[in-house]
Write a structure and sequence with these properties.
seven-stranded mixed sheet; 35% helix; Dimethylsulfoxide Reductase, domain 2; binds molybdenum atom; binds ligand MGD; single chain; 16% strand; alpha/beta; Rossmann fold; six-stranded mixed sheet
Length: 727
């Protein structure tokens, strides 16, 4: 059946289905309502108000992904005899979905080169072996990668361990995600996160939603967009794909919306993949022609605005139209709406950051907001829609190659520590260094570095050159079977809602939540914090530098965070007071910019040529389906795009016609990095001509390692491919 709206009864029906898998509705409901921050996206749910409650206190805010993540954690353990009966080669052929549904990890596993199997080992042996290896490696030949799922406390502790061990090779999944937002915003307004809180979004009269699919990836944002529409506000979507749920969505917690559906987009603009930069400059040009700039604001609070205005004038409409793929009339139409808006919010996701010019995209969004004075007031501002539930917190507490000056100084001065000063490497640089055999050890807190990396063949080759790789995970993923190091350890950890003591997370609105933790579901896994503290106390280089025993207590880690991380002082008391808080100095309700000059800066750019314009070439985006969370696939189907499997490439029917392809025909897809065969080509009228869509992580075979020089983020959405029929 063709799906014509997002959300709705299907989402409710799904809840009951998942409840059966979890052992009953009441059990699942209790788990979902426990006082823990939601495990999926960074919109921010749960915490002390209880699960399924957002930052405005609205209940019930349910999303399918959070149910899936919860039910996955409620799975029984993988049986101990599994490992002797399934070889690594066999498990390599398992799909991400098969691996996730094998169950929870509950005992440490070890693989040694030459063997065909993982072997379960006991905790003491695993830790001793790993410590022995760490004691023999030069610190700068190790690197630490963090996903954004772990707590602030675990993140802080492991980066501290890495620095005391002697390396700044500390980075998180953000380099493959929102790094361009952080770098772009920092260069423009002096802070790298959202300038607004959730209430502001609902007060705005115009929301730009650029390069994201929140209907599927941040479903609870849809409630806010519905409120904007109901109050007469405009929602302008900029996306090469007409995403079903952005056109119409049925919000499960709203009876009227549930039955009749809510129209979300008032305007839908379809640029070519990578065409946003030209489009954003085009909107500015149109504003200039309408004389709709806020000259007073530009004069008082911004710098470089004259140079910027000159450049706006200099771009020709023909260049803008050609490089954006959007006709001038459509650009002028949305510029007029923006010109009338009094409180506009600009929100964006991976369609903006996953490009070789991602930072420029973000700067251009910021330019557009600044030129009408939309930053530094309530009800309007800039809003990168973050990915992982605690990716922002992990970054705040120091999981970055270079520590913020304040953190570095406070650790050295107040805590009398000596920290390394050599430049640390970003994620891709670590992978490239491993490929040159310069790295010997990888240590990963969560995530799936193999699966999330561009150029899968390279990723496997590079990781397999390591002498040792240690991965702390809850469930299995492809990274546990591809690119195995000479010695590989998989260490099972507890999920957030199983932690023995409360931990904290930071939402994309800079709000710090307290998760209570809860009873463990399985014997075997250890808490991330206790495990990191155990390594800290045993590794020679780190053992005497900190009292690691006290660091087993998250209260003590929070005292450290409070004393070193800017804006985080309230975290010291949160365990007792239970008072969740907004981080000081982040929300910008006044135009006080934390740049050196105190003013926001407008940036100038040249417009990149649209890629893939030769005959038989197409621009490919690699995106998420409705049934997955990053490299974890819960369901093979993509409900909203009406696909029953993931081995597909979605293409406009007119493009198919032009190169004589039939619906469902098997094709080979080739890029300059790799090729995939036996892919089914599917008619998909919702995508703009010349552009095609495939699913991540499988399509990482095709994605090149060329990255944005400013953010080091690969162009996961900017791949040029060719398609050839196979039969
Ligand atoms: N259900 C679910 N939720 C998730 C995740 C998940 O995997 N599943 N992952 C989490 C994470 S870590 C993240 S970062 C976010 C990701 O959230 P999104 O950014 O929404 O995720 P993507 O699937 O990468 O989708 C990108 C969207 O950008 C559009 N797009 C592609 N190229 C371009 C372009 O050049 N220009 C424009 N304007 N648009 C383009 C695509 O059509 C698609 O709608 O979601 C988080 N939430
Ligand atoms: N081609 C392409 N590549 C991409 C993207 C894309 O759009 N296209 N998106 C990029 C983006 S935005 C991101 S964020 C990255 C994602 O990169 P990662 O964050 O590295 O990957 P995930 O798939 O989210 O990691 C999933 C694993 O985390 C573990 N896990 C879950 N919960 C916990 C926990 O509480 N503790 C611990 N220790 N482990 C846990 C589970 O074992 C699970 O298998 O991928 C990037 N790669
Ligand atoms: Mo992400």
């Amino acid at each position: 059946m063709k799906v014509a709206s997002g959300g709705g009864f299907r989402a409710i029906h799904y809840t009951f289905k998942k409840a059966r898998e979890a052992g009953g509705l009441l059990k699942l409901y209790r788990a979902m309502r426990s006082r823990n921050a939601c495990k999926t996206c960074a919109l921010g749910m749960g915490g002390q108000k209880g699960g399924m409650v957002n930052e405005k206190g609205t209940f019930p805010e349910v999303c399918k992904k959070s149910l899936q993540a919860m039910v996955a954690d409620m799975q029984p353990a993988i049986p101990p005899d599994f490992w002797s009966s399934h070889s690594i080669d066999e498990l390599k052929s398992f799909s991400p979905r098969q691996l996730e549904s094998l169950g929870r990890l509950n005992q440490p596993l070890r693989y040694r080169q030459g063997s065909r199997y993982y072997e379960p080992v006991n905790w003491e042996e695993a830790i001793e072996d790993i410590v022995n290896k760490l004691d023999r490696v030069e610190a700068n030949r190790s690197f630490f990668y963090f996903s954004g799922r772990s707590s602030n406390e675990a993140g802080f502790l492991l980066q501290l361990f890495a620095r005391l061990f002697g390396t700044n090779n500390v980075n998180n999944c953000s380099y493959y995600c929102h790094q361009a937002s952080g770098v772009g915003l920092q260069s423009s307004i002096g802070t790298g996160t959202a300038t607004i809180v959730l209430e502001d979004l609902e007060k705005s009269d115009c929301v730009f939603l650029i390069g994201g699919n929140p209907a599927s990836n941040h479903p609870r944002l849809m409630t806010s967009l519905m409120h904007v529409r109901r109050r007469g506000g405009k929602v302008i979507v900029i996306n090469p794909v007409r995403e079903t749920g952005l056109v119409k969505f049925r919000i499960p917690s709203d009876p009227l919306s549930l039955i009749f559906g809510t129209k979300i987009a008032t305007h839908y603009i379809q640029p070519d993949i990578g065409g946003d930069l030209a489009l954003l400059w085009g909107i500015a040009k149109s504003l200039q022609q309408l004389d709709a700039m806020d000259h007073d604001f530009l004069e008082s609070y911004c710098q470089d605005s004259e140079r910027w205005a000159d450049q706006v004038r200099d771009f020709s409409w023909s260049e803008i139209e050609e490089k954006s793929g959007v006709p001038r009339s459509s650009i002028e139409e949305i510029a007029k709406i923006y010109a009338k808006s009094e409180r506009a919010v600009f929100a964006w996701t991976m369609g903006i950051t996953h490009h070789a010019h991602g930072v420029q995209n973000v700067q251009a969004i910021s330019n557009l907001a600044l030129c009408r004075g939309m930053v530094g007031r309530a009800g309007c501002g800039l809003m990168p829609i973050r990915g992982h539930s605690n990716v922002q917190g992990i970054g705040s507490v120091g999981v970055t190659p270079k520590l913020k000056k304040e953190i570095f100084q406070a650790l050295e001065n107040h805590h009398s520590l000596k920290l390394p000063t050599a430049d640390g490497l970003d994620t891709l640089a670590c992978m490239e260094s491993a490929d040159r055999s310069e790295m010997q050890v990888g240590f990963f807190l969560g995530g799936n570095l193999y699966g999330s990396n561009p150029d899968s063949e390279f990723a496997a080759a590079s990781l397999s050159k390591l002498k040792m790789c240690v991965m702390l995970n809850t469930t299995l993923n492809t990274g546990h079977f591809h690119g195995l190091a000479e010695e590989t350890y998989v260490l099972p950890v507890l999920a957030r809602d199983e932690e023995p003591a409360p931990t904290t997370q930071e939402s994309m609105f800079n709000f710090v939540r307290l998760s209570d933790g809860g009873p463990r579901r399985l014997q075997g896994p250890r808490s991330e914090i206790s495990l990191i503290a155990a390594f800290g106390s045993k590794v020679k280089e780190t053992s005497t530098k900190v009292d690691w025993r006290s660091m087993r207590n998250p209260e003590e880690i929070r005292r450290w965070i409070a004393s070193v991380v800017p804006g985080y002082s309230s975290i010291a008391e949160i365990g007792k007071s239970k008072e969740e808080f907004h981080i000081a100095g982040r929300t910008l309700h006044r135009p006080d910019f934390a740049t050196d000059s105190g003013k926001a800066r407008l940036h100038c750019h040249s417009l990149p040529e649209l890629k893939g314009k030769q005959r038989c070439q197409f621009r490919l985006m690699t995106v998420r389906s409705e049934g997955q969370f990053n490299t974890v696939v819960y369901e093979e189907e993509d409900l909203y795009r009406n696909q029953d499997g993931r081995d597909v490439i979605l293409m406009h029917p007119a493009d198919m016609n032009e190169i004589s392809l039939r619906h469902n025909q098997k094709v080979m897809v080739t890029s300059d990095t790799g090729k995939m065969s036996n892919i089914r080509v599917r008619e998909f009228g919702n995508i703009k001509r010349g552009n095609v869509l495939m699913y991540y992580p499988e399509a990482n075979v095709l994605v090149s390692r060329k990255a944005d020089p400013a953010s080091r983020t690969p162009a996961f959405k900017g791949v040029v491919i060719q398609i050839n029929a196979q039969n």
